[in-house]
Amino acid sequence: MKSRGTRKISIIWVPFFCFSFFFFGMLITNSRIWSVSESNGQVISRRRHEQELQIVSEDSSFKIPAEKKDVMTEVYRTQEAIQSLDKKITMLYRDLVEARNSRGMHSSDSHTPSIESSGKSNLPKKKMLMVIGINTAFSSRRRRDSVRETWMPRGEKLFQLEREKGIVVRFMIGHSATSNSILDRAIDSEDALHKDFLRLEHIEGYHELSAKTKSFFSTAVAKWDADFYVKIDDDVHVNLGMLATTLAYHRSKPRVYIGCMKSGPVLSSKSVKYHEPEYWKFGEEGNKYFRHATGQIYAISKDLATYIAVNQPILHKYANEDVSLGAWLIGLEVEHIDDRNMCCGTPPDCEWKAQAGNVCVASFDWSCSGICKSVERIKSVHEKCGEGNGAVWSALI
């Protein structure tokens, strides 16, 4: 009886226990599913976050090309800064050239009036309109005297011209090959009398005119701050008032080269006066030079004179001085001004023009590359073609 009762009880509870175990198993399974779903949700959320970050990073990488304009702007700014630095270096080098050149000029100009040696070297230089260098030689004393007696002011008037009109006029000359020679002492004596020389660190010689031209511009731009620097031969007649008015007209231009432009033949024959040893550089025999101002008189602006001063060690010298200057400037951004009023003929040419109210800047004879027999004739040219003694003082410059 007891065994049957026991068997019946276990049969009755079997479904209950099965259901209980099933229910308990479901609870455990659901809890695991929930935990797994939660962990999967975190993983999914983390993956979504990583994908969003990747998308953001990809978006930013795509934005880089859109920012190329900003990058190019920075590149341009950098280039401008480099160019500005180059300009500053050029200016510093020019100052160095000025300081170097000024060392050797204090002693030679110690006798000059107070307007040139006032002892206030630290003060800014007075701005001049033009500095004129009259090219001369040791043997040209009579030519210099003829110029002094005609178109070039003398004595106090020379320095008054500087103070009031900003026009500097000097005979430019270097030194002889022998130190302190009789030639040098003769120039020193003449300079002590007239005080109108600019001594150059240059050894005089006919075939050294190109080097002398470089030396003049380098020395002049270091000594005077002018708008223009002018080279004139000592056998040319000049009207200073007309020259000043002509140059003042071009004052606002940055780089100008003014003169009577020409393009003569390149002479290959050694027997001629203006033989060019490097004729082969200009092409076939019989070719002409590039345009350049004739050497009797020409003017260049300050930027160009400074360029020559800074680069003079590497500027090539041709046989003819005017060709050399043209070569130094032909490759630059320079305005070439062909002014035929700077190369009038001697009377009657300049005389007729003066009578018509068109006074010439300069007069000379092409056949002589200057006034033929200038010592004897320049006074006559001055009387017939001169602008009058008061013209330069009344010139509007």
UniProtKB/TrEMBL annotation:
TM regions (residue ranges): 12-34
Topology of the protein relative to the lipid bilayer: Single-pass type II membrane protein
The keyword Transmembrane helix belongs to this UniProt entry's keyword annotation: yes
Cofactor(s) needed for function: Mn(2+)
Cited InterPro entries: DUF4094, Glyco_trans_31
Intracellular or extracellular location(s): Golgi apparatus membrane
Ranges of compositional bias, category Polar residues: 110-121
Pfam families tied to this protein: DUF4094, Galactosyl_T
PANTHER family: BETA-1,3-GALACTOSYLTRANSFERASE 7, BETA-1,3-N-ACETYLGLUCOSAMINYLTRANSFERASE
Family (UniProt): Belongs to the glycosyltransferase 31 family.
Protein name from the UniProt record: Hexosyltransferase
Organism, scientific name: Cucumis melo
Underlying gene: LOC103487555
